[in-house]
Amino acid sequence: MSGPALRAGHRVTSLKWRIVVQFVVLLLPMVALLAFKTGNAVHRDAELHQRVEAHGKAGALRDSYRAFLDGVTDAVDSGSPAKARAGKLREAAAHARGLFEFDTSQLPTRALATFLDELHGAVSADPGIDNLQRRREQVTRARQQIDALYVDTERTLNASIASALEESSRNTRVVIVATLLISCLAAAFVVQMIRGLTEPLEVAVRVARRITKGEAVSAADFKARSDIDNLLGSLWRMSGSLDRYRKNAQRQRHGLEQKIVQLNESQRSLAEAQQLAHLGNWSWEPQRDSAHWSDEMYRILGLEPGSIRPSWHRFLAKIVPAGRDELRAELALLRAGPRRFAIEHRIVHPQTGERIVMHQGASEVDAEGRVVRLFGSIQDITERKEAEDRIRELGRLALFDPLTRLPNRVFFKEHVRNAIERARCAGSTVVVMFIDLDRFKRVNDALGHGVGDELLRQAAERLLECVRGADVVSRESVWADSIDEAVSAERRVVARLGGDEFTVLMADVKQSTDAARVARRMTANIAQPFIIDGNELFVTASIGIAVYPADGDSADHLLRHADAAMYEAKRRGRNNFQFFTGELHAAALAKLETQ
Description:
By secondary structure, the chain is α+β, with helices and mostly antiparallel strands. It folds into three domains: 15-189, Four Helix Bundle (Hemerythrin (Met), subunit A), CATH 1.20.120; 278-388, Beta-Lactamase, CATH 3.30.450.20; 399-594, Alpha-Beta Plaits. It has 18 helices and twelve strands. It has helices at 3-8, 15-78, 87-102, 107-125, 129-134, 136-212, 229-277, 295-300, 312-317, 321-336, 382-397, 409-426, 440-447, 449-466, 485-490, 512-526, 555-571, 582-594; strands at 279-285, 290-293, 340-349, 353-365, 371-380, 430-438, 472-476, 501-507, 530-532, 535-537, 540-548, 577-579. Helix 3 (87-102) runs antiparallel to helix 4.
């Protein structure tokens, strides 16, 4: 028996919607009655409150003025001034203004307040009896106005009270009638509910009895006025649905088995990927003291998967002692609240020794903000760190001279650019010196390249002794297979410019005499004899000096101008220094034009 068959013989109404409609019909009058009663009460209370407050302000005005009149009477009777009660006029004027601000319809109160202020000024200025006698008529008229104003507010208040009582009585009668109507509607609603619920149940019981006896049932037997009879029809269709459900369950079970197989494949792929990436993961629930390590994490620690019970203390025991305190601190912060960390530290592997790992961790909190779970990962990055060190070493070698262990031209020009940028921002000066060893080629040709190389090394040492820590001495270099690490670190700002040519960078120079003093010290130091393989050798140095910003605003300009000044020093007899000048610049331009 299908749903359409049930609905063909009769029209089925929804019990749910019948209840909703009847409830709304019952609720709307109650809401309207409540809104009507509340609105009237609010309006009535507001009006009464206004009338009571106006009456109170009028009473305060009358009492203040009467206190003033009592003072006037005492003054006339005793023949003494009435200055002591004149302050009551100010209070009365203040009450009159307050009454007008509260109820602007009381227009006379504004004029009355002005009059009371004027009367207060006159009485305060002349508190004598004669002045009070002259103003007797004004004082009396003001009293009459104040009394009339008080009587008017009292009459208005009484009328409002009477109106409110009458309206309350009328509203009470309306509420009683409405309550009776709503009670009748509620009774009808309850009767409909009882019928709507009991009739389908009676039909269900009757049909169940017939089915129990094995009697045939038809769609007409399920006839009812509400939609609960559809439930009876659903019972009839349940038998057929069970077969379809079993078939669907079998298909779903088959699909679930396939998903389990796929999940196992994904877990195996994940484990293989973690093994290839040397990446392991862990989790820990502090409250339950429950921990989990992935198989790859066991392998990173040099353990067989599942060989020991995971715990934080066993993991700390695998860490190099120098890194345990930092990791303990990170763990304490994780347990305190939601956060993340990422640090590098070393672990002790039983077969391969110390390994470097990247350790990341995070914390998970519940709805109340309490930490309930910590989780993270460790990745063995030993090979990657070694590769990075090799790349960094190769890059460093490309910037240094293998002969003197000083930075080369590329490194030096980069330092000059940085110094110019800082000087441009700070408004300071940068000095570049170009140094050439005089008669070096003669020594190199006569005694061989071995002696020449040693002479260059010793000359570099002497130049380093002449400059302060912030200056840079440089020589141009070619490729080197290895550089002593300690020497390179100590002279990391030195570079090579050409065969026997050196450069010096002086940043933040206060005045040109500082550069001249350093240049003079270098020429004197280089002029001292060199002892190489038992030979006493003599060379000198010619130095050219260019200054930023006067002599150029780039590294190339400063080097070119310092080179020109160095040739001027050679032209003037060698073993001296020269600053770049405008004449040298003009000569350089002329030389370029003739070429």
